[in-house]
Structures are given as C-alpha cells and as structure tokens.
Write a structure and sequence with these properties.
Elements: H1 8-11, H2 31-38, E1 41-44, E2 47-50, H3 51-58, H4 65-72, H5 79-89, H6 91-107, H7 111-123, H8 130-143, H9 146-158, H10 165-177, H11 181-190, H12 196-208, H13 212-224, H14 231-243, H15 247-259, H16 266-278, H17 282-291, H18 297-309, H19 313-325, H20 332-345, H21 348-361, H22 367-379, H23 383-392, H24 398-410, H25 414-426, H26 433-445, H27 449-462, H28 468-480, H29 484-493, H30 499-511, H31 515-527, H32 534-547, H33 550-562, H34 570-582, H35 586-595, H36 602-614, H37 618-631, H38 636-648, H39 652-664
Antiparallel strand pairs: 1-2
Helix pairs in contact: 2-4, 3-4, 3-5, 4-6, 6-7, 6-8, 7-8, 8-9, 8-10, 10-11, 10-12, 11-12, 12-13, 12-14, 13-14, 14-15, 14-16, 15-16, 16-17, 16-18, 17-18, 18-19, 18-20, 19-20, 20-21, 20-22, 21-22, 22-23, 22-24, 23-24, 24-25, 24-26, 25-26, 26-27, 26-28, 27-28, 28-29, 28-30, 29-30, 30-31, ...
Length: 682
C-alpha cells in the first residue's frame, strides 16, 4: 500500500482541527479493510478520518480497489459528502462506487436502501450498468414491489437493454414474485433469446404461484424447443410431479436424471424422495433415501414428512431419532413435520422433548412450529398448554387459529372453541373451510342452532358450500340440533359427497327415529357406488334400533359381513344388543353377548341393562349390572339404573342394600343440566 496517501497534507483536506484522537491500530497492512468494515471514522496518529474520505483515498490503490470499495459501501458515514468528493476526484470511480454499493445492498438484503440509492444515482446523472439493473430487479421481486419494478423496467427499455437474456430473465422472475403472471409471460415471450435459466425461471415462477399445470406446460414447451434441462430444471420440475400426484411422469423424469448423470445432485435426490412420498409410494422414497451417498437435513426432513403424511407414524418417529443419532440437527421444517406424528401417536413425552429442543434452538417464533406444538398438545388432551403456546405465537395465521379451535372442539371445550372463533374474526383473520369444519361440531355439541345458522350464512357468502367437509359438517350440525329436514336440504344440495357425508345423514335419520328414511338413503348410497364402511352400519343399525325394525337390523348386520367383508366391531354389537333389547328379545341379545368374539365392554352391557329396565327383566338386569360394576365401579349411573329396576319390582330391601354399597364406594349422583341458547336482540 502507498502510505504516502495518509500524510498530513493529504489528510488536511478532510479534517477539522479538533479531530485529534490517536489510532490504536497496530497492524498497518490491514488498516484499510479493518477501518472500512468496522468504523465510521478512523483516528490515525492524531487525525480523525471520515469513512467517505478514507474510501476516496483507498480508490487510488491499484490492486485492492474493488475489495476495499465494496466493503466501504457498508460503512460510509455521510453519503452525500462521499459522493460529492468522489465526483470531484474521478467520475469513472464514481460510477463504479454507485454500482458496487447498490449491488452490495441487494446482496445483503437492504432492498429499500438499494432502491433509494438508485433514485439518488439518477438525480446525480450517473448511468447504472447492466448488472445494477439486474440487482435492482431482484430487489423489487424480494419486496414484491410491482410499481417499482415497472418503473425500473421502463428505465431498462429506455436504455435498450431489455433484449439482454439475463435482464429479461430477471424481469420475468420479478413479475412472478410480484404475482403479476401476465407480465411475466409477456416478458418471456418478448425475449429474442432464451437460455435454460430463462426456462427454469418460468417453471419455478408458475410453480411458486400455485399453478403446477402451467409450470408443467412450460416444461413440455421447453423440451419441444430443444432446450436441454439441467439439474436446476429437475429441482423445479420434480415438485410439479409431487403436487400433481403424477408419479408416472415423475418416473420418466427419474429415468432422464439417471441417463444424464444428475443423480449425484443432492437437491435432485431430495426432490425424488419427496415426490415418491407425496405420490403415496413411501417404500420407493425410503429406498432412494437409503441409497443417497450423502444426506443433509432436507433429505431427512423429506423422508420423515413422507412417512408422516402416509400415516406411518412409528417409522417417522424412528427416523427422527436416527437423524439425531447421526448428528444431523433438525431445522424448523423438520420439527413442523415430526410434531403431527407425536400428535397422532398421542406421544406427549416425546412431544415435550421436541418442545425443549424448539426452545433451545429458538424456533418458538416460527409460526409453523408454534402451530404444530398447539396441535400436538391439544391432541394429547393438554388444552391448557396448547392455549398458552397459542398466545405466544407472535404472528398467528389462519392455520394457528384453526389448530386451537379444533383442539378445543375435540376436547369437549365447545364454549372456548366458539370464543376463539369470534376472536379470530375480530383480529381480522379470514376463516377458511378448515375453520368451518373445526367450529361446526362445537355448535352441534352446544345445540347452538343460531350460531350454526350464522356460520352457515358465512359459508354461503364465502363460497364454501362446494367443500365436501364443510357440507358434511353442516349436515351433522343441523341433525344434532334437531333440524333433520334442513340437514337433508343441505345434503341434497351438496355437489360432491363422500362416505362421511352419507354416514352423517343416515345417522341423523337414525337418532331421530326415521328408520325407513335411513334405510332408503342407504340404498341410494349403494346405487351411487359409494362403498359403506363400519361407521355406515353403525348409522343403519342405530336407525333400525330406534325405529323398531328388528328384522331389517338383523339382515344389515349380516350384510356387512357377507356383502362388504366388514368384521363387526364393538359398536355394531352394542347396536344389535340395543335393537334386540328394545324389541323385547332379551334372551337373544344375551346370547349375542355370550357368543361375540370380542370381550363385551360397558356399552354392550349398558345396552342390555337398559333393555332389562324397559321390560322388567330383573335377574338378567342383575347379571348385566354386575359386569358393569366390575368394569366401572364408580359409575353411579349403573347403580341408579339397577336401583330403579329393583324399585319398579317392589324389591325395596335390594334398593337399600344397593344404596349402602354406593355409600361405601362413595359414589354420588351428579345433578343434571340442560342447554338453552339465549340471544340478545339489540
């Protein structure tokens, strides 16, 4: 370095007489870079040198001119003085410094500052180069600032560099990031020359804007034009196959990757693991994962998420544990993928350990991690902790609100679920179909018909009626609130129905005693080709039981075994016992219990005990009650039911004995309660 630059006569151009603090730096050979990177002023042997003054002097170095100036762009003290001095010194260096400082701002994420410098550069009459325009376009895209992007595009056209392939590609990419898809396509179509990067930008742009079909069309157009894809193309195209569940096309691309030697690219391999898992072929995904010579955190996250998504919770958890043994640190996406596994397995202790890792790693502020924790604790029936964690999420989105609403609803806290739903709207978060599905069961549980009607109105206004899950939720809500006719109207208006939709309507008819209507709807369901499941027959048997259709109930119990190969479960036996018991066929019901392949539970014995009271079958009722007392010794309801049977038969001594047993076991009847819905009219 030429240290003569720093003699007193040269420095006096920039210093005031009072700036006289000596420099403490001993390493003179590194002084310029230390100074520029860390200081706004330099105290050098009694002279305090402003950053911009030092940078002007440093420009005279021949070898390290670019490195020093670039670092100086981050630490200059007074920008206007700096530019004024350099304009006077050397116009060529001035252009370089403007361009370099703007590029450096964009590189380090200071997008607003880069745009401000560009406008100042324009006012100073200094011409930016092509690379600066590319950096500025990138800044506009990062900020999603379409207006600034359009303005810079006009400046590019005025300078005649729009035809440059790199500039054109950058513009198309910027328009995609600003969600201006039409401008992006027009820009691409106007480009006189396109390279593989240009095509990749179009594929990625459509994919990131949720249009995988469009992206796939661009990829096919690219191949038709004879442009050879590279590894980046593959990284962009493989997720399209995953999102479109197009495994056959994915396999073809996999073959292309093998033939062209892209298999060694870890990003490409990660994409295939994710693609096969999303297409439901988790076995191939796992084989590919194991064959990878090198795996990173993305690889592990992809396979864990794949197993989780395909309901292989135990395998996902095992892989997560193996990942940690391999000293691969999970990131926030890994955590967001494994938390649903803990929720599905109700693995609270494992979930707590992951929560501890989240705290140590600083992931608590991540909205997806926070939402995953809320969901995990709620599904593990720890609603109180879920509530606390929900309140700590700094920026809650609709998914976060849905998690806490569903958690409250599923854990028998319907009042809290409705309160959160109201607060969500007050906070300006727009409910989505998942919100509706989460909150409607709470209206049903509380028999809150008016609240349910308001939600139904919102569903209509928001266009959610076509959502099969929302429609099913409305059917269930109206049925449980006693409006079976409205439930049927909603059901008939549904454009699409799944097996759950049919089950809800059949069960609704069943619990309201409309047995014939339930059986007719079941026949209609069969005619549409919808295959009944276990829940369907619960609804059918319930309908037969409540309507006294004994023979029909027997037939459908046999149908589920012979015609649909469905082995009866505990609920089906309980329905059959209830059906026979209500109709007075208690001995047959008892025989069913004695011969059933499953160990009878409280529901089955409870159904028999209830029938014994209806038909005054004391001895059989005593047998049923004994089994119930063994299974649930503290359930006061069974004692009361048997006591009523004794009382109706005039066996008061047995009533007294039973009450003595109740006192010894400290069982106490809880007072009953009823729900009514009260609405204030203003």
């Amino acid at each position: 370095m030429d240290w003569s630059l720093f003699n007193s006569s040269s420095l006096s151009l920039f210093l005031s007489p009072s700036e006289t603090t000596p420099c403490k730096c001993n390493n003179h050979t590194q002084l310029p870079l230390i100074f520029v990177s860390n200081c706004s002023h330099l105290n050098f042997y009694g002279h305090r040198i402003p950053t911009y003054a030092f940078l002007a002097a440093a420009l005279k170095q021949k070898k390290k001119k670019r490195q020093t100036a670039s670092a100086g762009a981050n630490a200059y003290g007074n920008q206007n003085q700096f530019l004024q001095i350099n304009t006077q010194k050397d116009e060529q260096h001035n252009v370089f410094l403007w361009n370099d400082m703007i590029r450096d701002y964009v590189k380090k994420g200071f997008y607003h500052e880069a745009l401000r410098m560009y406008y100042q550069m324009q006012r100073a009459g200094i011409e930016p180069d092509r690379l600066v325009f590319i950096s500025l376009i990138n800044a506009c895209g990062r900020l999603s600032d379409l207006q600034a992007g359009l303005q810079i595009h006009q400046d590019i056209i005025a300078r005649g560099i729009e035809s440059d392939v790199f500039v054109g590609t950058a513009l198309a990419s910027m328009y995609f990031k600003c969600e201006s898809l039409e401008n992006a396509r027009q820009m691409f179509d106007r480009m006189p020359e396109r390279n593989v990067v240009s095509w990749n930008a179009m594929i990625a742009g459509y994919s990131q804007n949720g249009l995988p079909h469009k992206a796939w069309e661009v990829f096919k157009e690219m191949l038709f034009q004879g442009v050879k894809p590279n590894s980046v193309t593959m990284v962009n195209v493989i997720p399209l196959c995953a999102n479109l569940l197009a495994m056959e096309q994915g396999k073809q691309i996999h073959g292309y990757v093998i033939r062209n030697g892209f298999e060694s690219d870890i990003s490409v391999c990660n994409g295939f693991v994710d693609m096969y898992a999303k297409c439901g072929n988790v076995n191939i995904a796992y084989k590919l994962f194991r064959r990878m010579p090198k795996r990173d955190v993305v690889s592990w996250t992809a396979i864990i998420a794949g197993y989780s998504r395909n309901d292989h919770s135990y395998e996902a958890l095992a892989l997560f544990n193996e990942m940690q043994v391999q000293n691969i640190q999970p990131n926030s996406i890994t955590i967001a993928s494994i938390l649903p596994v803990c929720a599905d397995l109700v693995a609270l202790e494992q979930g707590k350990q992951i929560h501890g890792y989240v705290i140590r790693s600083g992931f608590e502020s991540d909205v997806f991690v926070g939402t995953g924790l809320v969901d995990m604790y709620a599904k593990c029936r720890n609603v109180k902790t879920a509530h606390k964690l929900f309140e700590r999420i700094p920026q809650r989105n609709a998914v976060s609100w849905n998690a806490i609403i569903a958690g409250c609803s599923q854990n028998d806290h319907p009042h809290e679920a409705l309160a959160f739903f109201s607060e969500m709207q007050i906070q300006g978060i727009i409910p989505d179909p998942v919100t509706m599905v989460s909150v409607l069961p709470s209206c049903a549980d509380l028999l809150a018909l008016e609240q349910g009607k308001q939600i139904h109105g919102y569903v209509i206004r928001s266009g959610f009626e076509s959502d099969v899950f929302v429609g099913t939720g409305l059917v269930d809500m109206y049925s449980k609130c006693g409006h079976i006719g409205v439930a049927r109207q909603v059901f008939d208006k549904m454009l699409n129905r799944n097996v759950v939709s049919w089950n809800s309507m059949i069960l609704g008819y069943g619990i309201h005693g409309h047995g014939e209507d339930a059986l007719a709807l079941f026949s209609q369901m069969q005619q549409t080709g919808t295959k009944p499941n276990h829940s369907t027959f619960i609804g059918v048997l319930t309908a037969c039981s409540h309507a006294g259709l004994v023979e029909e109930g027997r037939q459908h119990f046999e149908y589920m075994k012979s015609d649909y190969d469905l082995a009866p479960e505990m609920g089906h036996y309980a329905c059959l016992v209830d059906l026979l018991g209500r109709a007075g066929h208690l001995d047959e019901a008892h025989d069913i219990i004695k011969t059933m392949p499953l160990e009878p539970n409280v529901v089955v014995w409870g159904a028999l005990l209830g029938a014994c009271r209806i038909h005054s079958k004391i001895e059989l009722g005593v047998q049923a009650a004994k089994h119930l007392f063994e299974l649930q010794p503290n359930n006061v309801g069974y004692y009361v039911l048997l006591s009523n049977i004794y009382a109706e038969a005039g066996r008061w001594e047995d009533v007294a004995k039973l009450r003595t047993v109740m006192k010894e076991r400290e069982t106490k009847k809880q007072p009953g309660s009823s729900f009514i819905e009260v609405w204030k009219r203003r």
